[in-house]
Each structure stands twice: as C-alpha cells, then as structure tokens.
Specification:
The complex is a heterodimer of chains A (313) and B (310). Chain A has 14 helices and 2 strands, in the order H-H-E-E-H-H-H-H-H-H-H-H-H-H-H-H. Chain A has 313 residues and is mainly alpha-helical. Chain A has 2 domains: 51 residues; 240 residues, Orthogonal Bundle (MetI-like fold). In chain A, helix 8 crosses helix 10. Chain B is mostly helical. Helices cover 79% and strands 0% of the residues of chain B. Chain B is globular. Chain B starts with a helix and ends with a helix. The chains are: A mainly alpha (313), B mainly alpha (310). Chains A and B meet through helix 1, helix 2, helix 4, helix 5 and helix 6 of A and helix 1, helix 2, helix 3, helix 5 and helix 6 of B.
C-alpha cells in the first residue's frame, strides 16, 4: 500500500526477529513500559476505576429506611423491563439506521469529488463543509433550534411569504429528523476530512495504471478508491455509531422549546442524566449507564467483525 | 525515512492547486465542462453547511425587536456592538470567565493528552514488554466505550472523593484519549526508524533522551493532529462539564450559553435576552472557525497514516 505502511511493516518485522527480540525485551523493555506508564495510570484512574465503581454501585438500591441495600442484578433486570429506557434505545437505533448512512454517503461523495480535483475552488468547499465541526454540538443545537423556530427562523419567514402555515420541525413526528439534521450538519465535514485524508494517501501510480487500462473516473472511484477506503470508512462508521447512541445535547436543548415531545427519556443518555440529577436515583442510573456502554460496545464490535469478514471474503 | 507523514502533507499541497497539477501529471486532460456539474453539486451543499453560520452572524447584529420582525437571513439595523457589550457585561461579566475556562480546559487537556499519547504510542510501537498486547487491547477496546456513558460513573466516583466542581474534574478525564494512543502508535511505527534509535543507543543516549531529542521531532505531525482533536473535543464538550460543575464561575462556554438559552426560553417572548444568547454563541464559535481555516492542512497529516492502516 502506501510507503507509510511498508515502513511500518518493516520495522515491526525487524523487531520480531526471533533472536533479536529477547535481547530487545531484556534491555529496553522497561523503558517502553515506562513510556506507557503515565497514560496507563490515568487510564486506570479515569476509565477503569469509574467503570468498576459504577458496576459496584449498580448492585445496590436506595432504601427509604436503613441506607443502601445490596440487590444483586435487580437494577439490570429492572432496566430490561423499563419501557422508557427501551423506547430510548429503540429511538437512537432508528436514528442510527437513518442518519449514519446518509451522513457517510454524503461525506464519501464530497471526499471523492474533492479528491478527483474536477471542480473549481476545491479548497473553499473543503473548508466550508468542514467548518461546522468547529461549532460545539450544543451551540449547533441552539442555532438550529432558532432556525426551526416560528419566531426568528427563516423557514417560518419563507412560509409566511408564501402564505403557508409555518412548518413545525419539532413535533412528535419530525423531532428525530430535526435532530438527525443537526448531527449531519455538524459531523459530515469531519467524516469527509477523514475519508479525504485516506484518499490522498493512495499512491498515484494506482490511478495511472487504471488510466492506462482505460478506466474512467467513476470506475476508478468504485474499483480502486472504495476498497482502499474500507478501513477509514469503518473508523467513521464506528465513531458515528458511538455518537448516535450517546445523543444528548440536541434533545436536551430542544427540551426547552418542545418539552412535551422530548420528555424525560427521549434518548437513553438523557434518561440516565435525569435519573441521576433530577431523581437522585444514582444506583439505577449507574446500572443503565453500564448497560448503555455494553450495548454500544456490542454494536461497534459487531460492525468491526462484519467488516473484517467482508474483507477476508 | 521521513516517508509516512510527508505523503499526506504533500497531497494536501497538491489539492490547493487542483486542476493544473493534476492534469499535467499524466491524467487525461479534463475539459472545463467536466468541472461544471461537480462544482454545482458542491455549491448546493455548501449553502446548507454555511447558511446557519450566516444566519448566526446576521442575527447577532440585530436588536431583539429586529430578531422577531425582520427576515432571518438579511440584516436589519446594526446592533452588533451593543449586543457584544451586553454579552460581556451580563451577569457581572461571567462570559469572560466562561471564555477563560474554556481556553484553559482545552489547552491543558489537549497538550497533556497529546503528550501522553505521543509517549505511550511510541512505547507501544517501538518496544516489547510483558503485558503490552493485553494493555493495548484494553485501550483499543475503550475507544468503543461512549464517553457520556462514562461521565456519570466518573461523576459518581469524583463526588465520592470530593473532586467535583473544579477545573480538575474536567481536565483529568479529558487527558485520557484512547483514540490518540491508537493514532500515535500507528504513526510512530512508520515515523521512527528502528535503525535511528539503535544508532543513538550506540552513541550512548538514554531512552528518554532518544525520545525527547529524536523521536519526538519525527512524531510532530501526528502529535499536532492528536492535539487538535483533543482541543476541539474539550472545547466542544458539554456533557462532562454539565455533570461535574455546579457553579457558573467554573462553566465553559457550552454549559454557560445553554443555561442562558434556557433562561431566555423560560422567560418567553420579547422580554428575553435572545439577542444576547445569539451574539454570545456567535462570539464563542469565532475563535475555532478561524483556527480551522488556518490549521486546515494539519488535520490530515496524522490522520492519513492512521486511517489507511485501520
């Protein structure tokens, strides 16, 4: 593949030559461990410890009298039967099925067009599409909330000119799409940049070979670029899945505009937040956090497994 | 041997002069007609991506009355300076504190996380030691743990040891960037030649000196990419500070503005300070947008190495 990969492969092989390896482990291994140590200490403290603590907390339940009581897996079985939690999970899965493909197809199309170089002002488009990623999700949600609104949104103004009633973007039926739009707006450029960076590192000789064979730009894109983009697409896919499962800022901001539609449990994360801070049900919140983490992990793992199988086929 | 990072960087430069360089480099010469459709296609979408930001800018120049009465995408009266001074004086100038907090949290977290990632990535890539693979797989697996699912457990733990509601409660969790480790490991594998390390050892340099004086310079493009990602992640973070902080004086911009917004919405109608919220939001996105435009090419350099290998 690219030179980078070749170099990387070379160095790993030299490091793994049977005889040399032992020597390496002996003399420099400790140094390698010490380089990773500061990170690993923080990783244990900020990642593993909270998870272990949450696991511990999730085994208890607050009692009105007599402090906390150990209840085993009861919080988890409750979670599996909790309709608000299940509805939230289903909602973010639906969101994921709709939003992630649309966003990734857009990002891929933009990246391929930019990489083909067959347009004017490519740099302007590249920066312009990427720039929304600089806007924090909360600010993006806030901004789109105003844009959707009847008071100062341009859509309402336009409808008014045309003599139509203002569109309701935040009703029961439209809310999920309006949230999906905010995510798409914010993250398409981010994914585009990852894919574009991967495209730029495909060596030019491959294209020349394809051109000699008489392949047009669309065929080059499908038969040469797409297969080489698989790892980058997988990366984008997994990040997008994780992102959609933990939706929080958008529904939380839209709550102040459309409280009846959002409610307390529009997404699992919003539900966990409300349980912990409005209801003070910390143990149950810890259990649901944990379950949410496991669900996301399983989803991402499944996508990776599926992608690896496709590749080895 | 400086191959890995240079490839993507050179690529980025090529795109800045797209048509001519490409055409002369052996591709069949495209007619100008071939440019029309892709450019038009992108124009349609660029409107979608830039329209909200245009609206934000236009809206922040309006008084509250004009916000309600005039068309959203065009100017009406010029109230920008008044709005800006309102933003910075509201609630005893708390916006300054939010801006300062955001900057401190982002800079400290980004520099720290990138340093830790560079060291650990280098350690994982260039050395063999016991338990290395197990450790790395743990870190890699944690990329898939959603950070918000982690925030509540972290809050619970921090409140147990009295660490909530202060800057450390934001900075410490933000220092851990599993994805940064992953990126730096791949980057270090390609960027630091083993022969160079061996030569330095023969010259009697200690391992830490080799890292500081030789390896770190080779890792710089990857370091910058990890730095930028963590900077934006911390700058944009909302959930963690929302959970951790209870006093407005520690808030970053995201939490502070969301609070102003919910106050304005709760107030309702023409008495609310929507113009201040909108102008505050506009000011808060300007620094990052400028940084994005100027640092554009650095986003790609470290990424390409990482994403190509997957």
């Amino acid at each position: 593949m690219s030179d980078a990969t070749v170099t990387a492969a070379n160095t790993t092989t030299t490091a793994r030559v049977p005889g040399g390896r032992r020597k390496k482990t002996g003399s420099h291994g400790t140094a390698g461990f010490l380089f990773t140590l500061p990170f690993m200490v923080l990783f244990l403290g900020m990642f593993i410890a909270p998870l272990v603590y949450a696991l511990y907390l999730s085994g208890f339940r607050e009692q009105l009298v007599g402090g906390n009581q150990f209840v085993g897996l009861d919080n988890y079985t409750d979670g599996l039967k909790d309709q608000a939690f299940i509805d939230g999970i289903q909602r973010v899965i639906l969101f994921m099925i709709i939003q992630v493909p649309i966003m990734l197809i857009l990002a891929l199309t933009f990246a391929l067009i930019l990489d083909s170089g067959r347009l004017w002002a490519g740099k302007f488009f590249r920066v312009g599409i990427f720039v929304p990623y600089a806007v924090p999700t909360v600010i993006a949600a806030l901004m789109w909330g105003f844009l959707y609104g009847r008071d100062f949104g341009p859509f309402a103004d336009l409808a008014d000119w045309l003599g139509l009633p203002p569109p309701n973007f935040l009703s029961e039926r439209t809310m999920l799409f309006s949230i999906a739009n905010v995510s798409t707006w914010t993250y398409t450029g981010y994914n585009m940049i990852i894919l574009y960076a991967a495209l730029r590192s495909i060596p030019g000789e491959l294209y020349e070979a394809a051109a000699v064979d008489g392949a047009g730009s669309v065929r080059t894109a499908i038969h040469i670029k797409l297969p080489l983009l698989r790892p980058a697409l997988l990366l984008c896919g997994i990040f997008s899945i994780i992102g959609s499962m933990q939706l929080f800022a958008e529904p939380q901001i839209f709550f102040s505009i459309a409280p009846d539609v959002i409610g307390k449990a529009y997404t699992p994360n919003l539900y966990v937040y409300n349980l912990a801070f409005a209801d003070q049900r910390l143990n149950y919140a810890a259990a649901l956090s944990f379950m949410l983490g496991v669900i996301v992990f399983v989803f991402s793992y499944f996508v990776m497994y599926w992608s690896n199988r496709q590749e080895s086929r | 041997m400086s191959v890995p990072s240079v490839t993507p960087d050179a690529g980025a430069v090529v795109t800045d002069a797209p048509a001519k360089t490409r055409r002369s480099s052996g591709k069949p010469p495209g007619t100008d007609r071939g440019y029309v459709f892709p450019t038009l296609f992108m124009l349609v979408f660029i409107f979608y991506f830039l329209m909200p930001l245009w609206w934000l800018f236009v809206a922040s120049t309006k008084s509250l009355d004009d916000l309600f009465d005039s068309f959203g995408l065009w100017f009406s009266g010029f109230h920008l300076t008044v709005n800006i001074s309102d933003v910075f004086t509201k609630d005893d100038g708390v916006y300054w504190k939010w801006l300062r907090n955001t900057l401190i949290y982002s800079v400290v977290s980004a520099v720290g996380a990138a340093l830790l990632a560079a060291m650990a990535g280098y350690g994982f890539a260039k050395f063999d030691f016991r338990g290395k693979n197990l450790m790395f797989w743990f870190v890699l697996g944690s990329v898939m743990v959603p950070t918000t699912a982690l925030a509540i457990p972290t809050y619970l733990l921090f409140s147990k040891i009295g660490l909530t509601n202060n800057p450390l409660s934001i900075i410490l969790p933000s220092l851990v960037s599993p994805f940064g480790i992953y990126l730096m490991r791949i980057y270090a594998e390609g960027a630091v030649p083993a022969e160079l390390m061996e030569a330095a050892r023969i010259d009697g340099a200690g391992e830490f000196r080799i890292f500081r004086q030789i390896a770190f310079r080779l890792l710089a493009p990857g370091f910058v990419t990890v730095l930028l990602f963590n900077f934006v992640a911390t700058w944009n973070n909302y959930f963690l500070p929302l959970v951790m902080l209870s006093e407005p004086r520690w808030y970053p911009l995201t939490v502070g503005l969301a609070q102003w917004n919910s106050q304005a919405t709760a107030g309702g109608g023409a008495t609310s300070a929507f113009n201040v919220v909108i102008c505050g939001a506009m000011i808060s996105v300007v620094p990052l947008i400028i940084a994005f435009i100027f640092l554009q090419r650095y986003w790609q350099s470290g990424l390409s190495a990482g994403s190509v290998k997957g």
